[in-house]
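Q: I'm writing up a methods section and want to include an example of the input and output format. Could you take the sequence below and give the corresponding predicted structure tokens, formatted cleanly so I can copy it straight into the document?
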Amino acid sequence: MSGWVVVAGLGPGAEDLVTPEVRAALAQATDIVGYIPYVARIAPREGLTLHASDNRVELERAHHALQMAAQGKRVVIVSSGDPGVFAMASALFERLEEIPEFAHIDIRILPGITAMLAAAARVGAPLGHDFCAINLSDNLKPFDLVEHRLRHGARGDFAMAFYNPRSKSRPHQFARVLEVLREECEPTRLIVFARAVSTPEEMVTVVTLDQATPEMADMRTVVIVGNSTTRRVGAWVYTPRSAPDGGATS
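A: Here is the clean output for your methods example:
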């Protein structure tokens, strides 16, 4: 029997946000590969082997999955959110490019609801116009590049979604992110701090830029920064679908 690799997004946390397509792949799998917290979301069953591994071993994880598929196993690599957004889909193709003998393997990428979209839906429609997503971690790129992209995203008047904003090993960097935003944006710019959306630990806070502090974010938080037209309507936050003539206003 031919093996295959599926890279599947488990969504932001709630089980009812896992797509039927992903559930079907999990039901057919012989092996599950992924980061420890994500593999822990998969219920054990007869005929299924769980392969949990630590963070920062994405390429080794991808290689292991390809090896098992080459042996005829049906492998699902699990990611949180969407596997193509700062997750395992890219790592799999990076490894595949390095090992051409795996090129024949049947590979599918199954989308999921990424944390950015779940957070945006919770508060309304802050990504209703042009937006960008930036991973603030400097694990795979220098922080100078993070700052460069952040500054130009703000100058382009994009709404912005930030992943991995603040960790224990780099608590100072998000403070610098807020400094850059204050240099480029007005103090009343709306910011959404959405932590663990769709889980029992969910906490969502909306503040203005001048009220934001680094401690409002951690690694389970997605931060959404509105553009210059983003505003409140009652309890909701939204960005109009049209932009004023003349380009960016910030």
